[in-house]
Amino acid sequence: MRWRAVVAVELKPGVLDPQGEAVREALRRMGHDHVSDVRVGKRIQLLLEAAEEGEARARVRDICESLLVNPVLERYAFDIEPEGER
Amino acid sequence: MRWRAVVAVELKPGVLDPQGEAVREALRRMGHDHVSDVRVGKRIQLLLEAAEEGEARARVRDICESLLVNPVLERYAFDIEPEGER
Amino acid sequence: MRLGVVIFPGSNCDRDALAAAEIAGYEAVPLWHGESAVEGVDAIILPGGFSYGDALRAGALAATAPVMAGVRRFAARGGAVLGICNGFQILCEAGLLPGALTRNRDLAFHCHDVALTVVTARTPWTRALAPGERLVLPVAHGEGRYVVPPEELDRLEAQDQIVFRYEDNFNGSCGAVAGVCNRAGNVVGMMPHPERRVEAVLGGEAGLGVFRSLRLAAAGVTRP
Amino acid sequence: MSLSASPEARWTSVGLTEEEYREIVRRLGREPNDVELGLFGVMWSEHCSYKSSRKLLKILPSAGERVRLGPGENAGVLDIGGGWAVALRIESHNHPSAVEPYQGAATGVGGIVRDILSTGARPVALLDALSFGLPDSPRDRALLRGIVEGIGGYGNCLGVPTVGGETVFHSGYDGQPLVNVMCVGLVRLERLVRGRAEGEGNVLMLVGARTGRDGIHGASLLASRGLSEGGEDKRPAVQVGDPFIGKRLIEACAELVEAGWVAGLTDLGAAGLTSAAAEAAGRAGRGVVLELDRVPLREDGMTPYEIMLSESQERMLIIATPEGAGRVEAACRRWGLEAAAVGRVTGDGYLRVRWRGREVAAVPVRDLTEAAPAYERPWRAPAPVTPEPGRGVAAGPSRGGAAAPSHGGAPRPADPSEAFLDFLSSVHVASRAPVYRRYDHEVQTNTVLRPGHDAAVIRVRGTRKGLALATDGAGRWGGLDPYYAGAIAVAEAARNVSCVGAEPIGLTDCLNFGNPEDPHVMWQFRRALEGIRDACLALGIPVTGGNVSFYNETDGRQIPPTPVVGMVGLIEDIERLVPSSPRCPGALWLLGGGAVSQEGSLWQMWREGRVHGQCPPLDLSLEAAVQALVREAAGHGWIRAAHDVSDGGLLVAAAEMALSPEIPWGLRLQLPEAGDAWTAAYGEGGARVLVVPAGPEAERALMRRAEERAVPCREVGRLTEDGRVIVKSGRDAWVDVAAERAARAWKEGWAWLL
Ligand SMILES: Nc1ncnc2c1ncn2[C@@H]1O[C@H](COP(=O)(O)OP(=O)(O)O)[C@@H](O)[C@H]1O
Ligand SMILES: [Mg+2]
User: Fold this and answer.
1) Is B67 on the interface with C (CB under 8 A)?
2) What is the DSSP string of D498-553?
3) How many other CB atoms are there within 10 angstroms of residue D23's CB atom?
4) Which ligand has its closest atom nearest to the C-alpha of D648?
5) Which of D109, D432, D689 to mutate to test the pocket of ligand 1 (most atoms within 8 A of CB)?
């Protein structure tokens, strides 16, 4: 069965986000001064095969920890659903 | 009132995603051959002030279209919720 | 002639462009990103570098800087504008040039010489060059892959908007495009760095033609 | 960080020993409070205090006619004439890079650039000396990629060209890579500033990024212990670099220095505000008061302890007159940088910290800086004692080696041509272009000789002068004989610079070693320093400063002792510089000589996966004579190319000259009649340079001068246009391959790794 996983990777709280800072400053300059904080992270979408949801989750977790996420700086969360539902 | 918006930016279908390709290749090399497709996008989190949800949504849409998203390459969607709910 | 070089925070080829313009015989003046009035110059260069740290997408933040309003007006009046590397990215992000520039196909930064073919001499920045001419210039970028939808690429070709092509399409650009212009031809963007090749001691003068073109264009010279 | 009440936890929590803690109590005449203890902890750390090395470093010669600022300042400064001075410094970022390769390397670049800024100079070049484990594990490959990307990611954005460096592979760095970054800057002599808090009442302005919780006890503690201890608790300490702010700091500082509004300038590196303020005050013999409520913070609820110890990147401390402070602020604001007046210079010699209306720390500046402890750590030579090289213990050319590996290593390769191609394409020898083409090496449009030559050359705009820059490390020799390693690092870096026609005028060194509490490591350190000293004296080059990185150990595995040298050479007329490969073919001459052996060579490393045996004999007077001869030949235009013979030996050096042009030359090389061909081709040792004379007259002149200087000199082959590489041993063609094939092997050997 095919699953679609969407992984959200973000910088850990307290880790400097130079991109987010630069974007926030630019927004302020553009007049969007109601924006107080910007953090830029990654959104990774995977299509994978797995017999059932538990297996799919385990695989995605493994992929996150072995490749997608740098645990020194980042943390992650993911959603999973059978492919085709969206 | 303070709102947290999470903007998901992804490459349009048809736009080459070398990063996604590289991740898929790396996964395959690591033995995760159940992964058939990977797309790498951005996840941008904003904290902003707005009197009510409609205004917050309008502001986020404006920010996306004037800065966060390049329509030649990307498309986007966002969620919004009152800050502090998560 | 007076050439203005825009300095954005994070521009890092601004001084190089100013120096190259002087070597090519122009008066060169800096233009500050925060000033929306762009006056007293005959042409504008948006230089290379990492404006605003290339946050989000290269050129995205600079495209919203106040000076771009002035650049837009200048371009609309037919003024000659050249974006080099980051400058090209900014012009695309600002919508002054078609398409977009994104990460190189191999995801790596490339700093080396590349061979280009000149495609059109109709722009004020290529008037001194001949279509079909081969030019070797350095590149130094990580986000130089030019992207346009296929039908748009056809249109650009039909309208003579392709300015340079790579001989070896190392970064995976659509149509091997290394430089494009707007419909009118007065706004040009290119990824390679002509300002790095204007002195023999630095490896040759292959980039001088780009700068010299401006004078020919101003004098109304067109190549046969 | 919570400092618990148990007395032992007090000192261990800040990385101090019980004796050190007692010493603090003795000096203060009371128990330090938590903030004060934190100040002592970082300032007395190995990283900040150089407590294991300070006394020993004094043996390095640091005086010279050109030296304007020497050791002890943020960077060394050399007068290059015409009113210009060059600032130079090298620094390690080994520990952070092992933990987080991209950010570790990136912040290494940022950090060294700000050291150069501190002299008022504009950074004009970067070099990166990298040492990696053998890239056969995914972990070591990831470190390689992350580090190279981090150097490029930061340096490219900054707009400072990365013009050189080195890339070394050795199993001793498995899991513990070395990242040594050198920065060079240019400053008008009259604009030189110093990292001193002069002038009572002057204002301390903190400029640049906001202060967050990054790297509390990061560089200082991380680099003062091994990698295996701790683990997870050190992880939140990783700093993230922001080159966009770094770039704006360069511009803002340049403007301020040019306008003369800066009385003193210093960067915030390890130990952040604490060390910047204390060192600036210490150098001037002053005191400072810091008002922590004025420090712009990135995070809520930071304590004085955290603010003082934060290692947030991209911050500088400007000492301005009270009238100048407003101008500093305005100039910074123009570049979108915050500038806050966070303190002032006092006359009482104390570092005082105020927060919320209270004084939360008061410590004599001297106790944090020059009066910090300095140890003479015990040292012990390994048994059996290695005979001192250079004192007549020659490793004969036929000893060891492929024919009769002394430690039962790899058998002799079957086919010399195939072996040649394999060696050329190995990570040890293949072209470094896969690394340096990821670095912008031309920005600022001053790079006259790009990476790929013995040294890079950048011009000094507005003059005819050029600076030749090179780094050389010697970890491969370090494990065999640290004395030799120290000396050869200096000699080869100077040789690199001489080969392009420049006179070496000063160097900065980065000493990468294991745990200094291990007496054997301490012995290695002393011997390496002696080697550096002797080579500097023999070649007449002052050491203007440097950096020591100890505790490069993982689970008791020490890195090979690795002295790295960053050399600056001066060339008076850039038209006279000499590339490593000629524009047209010609005869190939070998200048110099000396005994050559496979022991310790790159060839041995490649064949056997490790080096062993003895270092070749060292002849520093021949070294000096060869280098002087090459420079003279360059100055007179007698040579069209010069390349030093080092890593990989004679054949590799000749092959690099032939194969590096876009369309490779062919090569003829005649190996000496006597001895083993493998040793003659790939053996290392001696002081040797290959040159291409500019014609018959130049050959005669070169020959004559070589005789006068007692430098051996003979023709050993030619670069040709016939597309073949043919190496003869005696009358036989020993290696015979197409130049095209050899060039491909060398150019593409390891591109896949990156
Ligand atoms: N990490 C690096 N960054 C930039 N340039 C490098 C790097 N590694 C090697 N180089 C360049 O590649 C060339 C060859 O390096 P190397 O083999 O160490 O030279 P040599 O043996 O003459 O000291 C030099 O020009 C050097 O500056
Ligand atoms: Mg070397």
Assistant:
1) yes
2) HHTT-EEEEEEEEEE-S-TTSHHHHHHHHHHHHHHHHHHHHHT--EEEEEEE---E
3) 17
4) 1
5) D432
| Number of domains composing chain A | 1
- Largest Cα–Cα separation, chain A: 51
pLDDT (0 to 100) of residue D749 = 86
Contact B8, A43 (CB under 8 A): yes
Partners of D165 in the β-ladder? D128
Distance, CA of D233 to CA of D248 (rounded, Å):
33
Query: Residue A53 pLDDT > 80, yes or no?
Result: yes
At how many degrees (to 10) do helices D243-259 and A18-29 cross? 70
Q: What pLDDT, on the 0 to 100 scale, is given for residue D233?
A: 43
Q: Which ipTM was obtained for this model?
A: 0.95
Q: In whole angstroms, what is the distance from residue D669 CA to residue D68 CA?
A: 46
Compute how many other C-beta atoms are within 10 angstroms of the C-beta atom of residue C174.
18
> Quick one: pLDDT at residue D394?
31
C55 interfacial to chain B (CB closer than 8 Å): no
Amino acid at residue number D40: F
Residue B71 lies in a domain: yes
Tokens of D674: 């006597």
pLDDT, tens digit, 9 for 90 and up, residues C150-177: 999 999 999 999 999 999 999 999 999 9
Say if B72 falls within a structural domain: yes
Cα–Cα distance for residue pair D577/D583, rounded to 1 Å: 13
CA of D435 to the centre of ligand 1 (A): 9
Q: Mean pLDDT throughout D635-656? A: 98
Q: Is the CB of D524 under 6 A from ligand 1?
A: no
pTM of the model: 0.94
Nearest-angstrom CA–CA distance, D270 and D250: 19
Q: Which has the closest alpha carbon to A8: A56, A54, A35, A41?
A: A41
Radius of gyration of chain A (CA): 16
Q: Using alpha carbons only, what angle is made at residue D370 by residues D364 and D372, rounded to the nearest 5 degrees?
A: 75
- The 10s digit of each residue's pLDDT in D728-744 is 998 889 999 999 999 99
CATH code at position A68: 3.30.1280.10
User: How many other C-beta atoms lie within 10 A of the C-beta of residue D534?
Assistant: 20
CB distance D618 to D592 below 8 Å: no
The domain limits of chain C are 2-218
Burial class (CB in 10 A: 0-12, 13-18, 19+), B79: exposed
Among residues B84, B47, B39, B85, the alpha carbon closest in space to that of B63 is found at B47
Q: How far apart are CA D293 and CA D354, in angstroms?
A: 8
Cα of D521 from ligand 1 centre, angstroms: 28
- Distance between CA D715 and CA D732 in Å, rounded? 18
Residue C221, chain A, CB below 8 Å: the answer is: no
Predicted confidence at residue D232, as pLDDT, reads 40
B49 neighbourhood in chain A, CB within 8 Å: 34, 36
Q: Is there a contact between C60 and B70 if contact means CB atoms under 8 Å apart?
A: yes
Q: Which of C13, C85, C92, C181 is catalytic?
A: C85
pLDDT value at residue D406: 35
Residue located nearest, by CA, to atom 22 of ligand 1: D454
CATH superfamily of C2-218: Class I glutamine amidotransferase (GATase) domain (3.40.50.880)
Q: Which residue has the CA at smallest separation from atom 27 of ligand 1?
A: D164
User: Which residue range forms the structural domain that includes residue A75?
Assistant: 2-15+41-82
Confidence of residue D237 (pLDDT cuts 50, 70, 90): low
Complete domains list, chain D, with CATH: 33-368 (3.90.650.10), 411-747 (3.30.1330.10)
On whether residue B46 sits in a domain, the answer given is yes
Helix (H) or strand (E) holding D169: strand D162-169
